Fold this sequence. Notes:
It holds the Pfam family Topoisom_I_N. This is DNA topoisomerase I. The chain has a four-stranded mixed β-sheet with strand order 10-9-11-12, with no helix packed on it. A three-stranded antiparallel β-sheet has the order 1-5-6, with no helix packed on it. A three-stranded antiparallel β-sheet has the order 3-2-4. Helices cover 42% and strands 9% of the residues. The longest helix has 31 residues. Among the domains are: 194 residues, DNA Topoisomerase I, domain 2 (Beta Complex), CATH 2.170.11; 79 residues, Orthogonal Bundle (Arc Repressor Mutant, subunit A); 114 residues, Topoisomerase I, Chain A, domain 3; 31 residues, no CATH class. The protein is α+β, with helices and mostly antiparallel strands. It binds a DNA duplex through helix 1, strand 12, helix 9, helix 12 and helix 13.
Amino acid sequence: xxxDSDSEDDVPLGARVAARAKQTETDAVMKNxxxxxxxxxxxxEDEEPLNKRKAIAxxxxxxxxxxxxxxxxxxxxxxxxxxxxxxxxxxxxxxFPPPYEPHxxxxxxxxxxVDLTPAEEEVAGFFAVMKDTDYxxxxxxxxxxxxxxxxxxxxxxxxxxxxxxxCDWTPMYNYFFEQREKKKQMTKEEKLQIKAQKxxxxxxxxxxxxxxxxxxxxxxxxxPPGLFRGRGEHPKMGKLKERIKPKDVIINIxxxxxxxxxxxxxxxxxxxxxxxxxxxxAGWKDTINTKDxxxxxxxxxxxxxxxxxxxxxxxxxxxxxxxxxIRKDYRAKMKDADNKIAQMATATYLIDxxxxxxxxxxxxxxxxxxxxxxxxxxxxTLIPPHTIHFDFLGKDSIRYDQSHEVDPVAYKSFGRFMExxxxxxxxxxxxxxxxxxxxxxxxxPGLTIKVFRTYNASITLSRLLKETPEGTVxxxxxxxxxxxxxxxxxxxxxxxxxxxxxxQMQKLTEKKDQMEAELKELQKEKPMSAKTENKIxxxxxxxxxxxxxxxxxxxxxxxxxxxxxxxxxDPRITVAxxxxxxxxxxxxxxxxxxxxxxxxxxxxxxxxx
DNA sequence: ACGCTCACTTAGTATTCCTTTG
DNA sequence: CAAAGGAATACTAAGTGAGCGT
Length: 609
């Protein structure tokens, strides 16, 4: 980017737009000027009154983007009417991973050790550590790795390392394994020392100042290089994710804040901009999905994220006032003779009833996953009289495999949409998320598809918590968890079964058998003493508790409760419930969630979602 | 109407931390 | 004290949707 930056076309779209619209309000982007010999590339100027910019006084005028030269702003259209997130913003930039340190352990090719350059050795190492994982067994992963490995090999190495099958990664793998063991074997003091060192190193990056307030930063570490691990059958798995250099990084910072010095000697930031219409502090282009960007954002516990989270839940809560009308609308339209209207209504019905995601079109070079609007005929089975079985891969290639009894009208419409279509064809071929969203906006301002997931998750929790029984804190907590579980199932939030699960269940079963045997033994006694009766009562109680926790554990083995807690359940429901039921908040929220939801802590106990 | 980019939220998994147990 | 086990956090991939240009 830097060397091309004289051409406006190389500035990201949003930046150009902002620069054009901008003028004084939106301190958008600018260009670099590589002729400058500064310690970063392209701290940009704009037409803001010069007295505001002391820094520029010491250097010759910087070349400006053509758009930025245009005369005074049209005040009506300042910053393109975009919302400004901050007035001042200062931070220390990003923390880069340490440079690669060669270990000298050889790749064995065709029985002979190969001398690799450090850069080659690094990439070989990426594969070597993974040699026994599922990934390394996948043809696509190996093929992509091999292509990129070949690409970075010097001619000399390429002349030797020609066939993947002749590579022996074992010595490298063993080296990494030993390193890991050594790390584990370190003494407590050594570990503590390393941790302290790490904290010192990251200290400048952990917080930023925004409008005079110190706030926590999220992912201030630049992602290290490695092999891309896509989820599911990702066509790009195994590709080399390249090392990000300062020139790849854009810093976004307040105009009057010092630009963080580039931490790598002799190198420069790709760009420095002052865009108040966004919340990110730094960003770089993803080297795998080249249309994507990675951003350094504030942490979830920051005010800026908290405010947006609160808005999200307020919007979902607002849907309560509109939901009846909306349901009436789609029920009436599901059987419309106009297929587009009927599809729109039926899709909305699914989004509401099953909390499906929108399902936007995806590029070919991504895993084949779907949401509501991209469901294909092969993903559903109609089971008379009006049950539909869904079997498809959703976000993160997580399988949605559920049967649902549906509205008979919806069932009939489904049949109509699928009629005469092959398995690979779209069920909802007349619509897309954008159209569904604009229809929703007509029914409620600001309403989009994803709001239904938040709404249904939160209102489900709220409804289930109303049935909380009297009892101990542990019992109430368990009731909360079951409600949480219902929501997780609704949203299809899953996790991989832990490796230890089966063994743990077996142990618990053994314990159960033992308790049952003990109980039988006690009950054999003829003249029941008061002491024995007590024992029996106690044992029975422990046994039933034990069995309950066993069945809960089994039911939850692949259900993830955390995702809905973090993203879907209005924290005010939980906080108010804790207050009403005298359950300490820490029983259901870990420390970071209490922090993240600090805006909800003062909610009144009677709060109803 | 459509495609595309950008910025943000949502997501599962890997790693680390902390507590319990042996 | 080490190992095990579970909880919490770190990491980064994968969605959604606004908004722009064509």
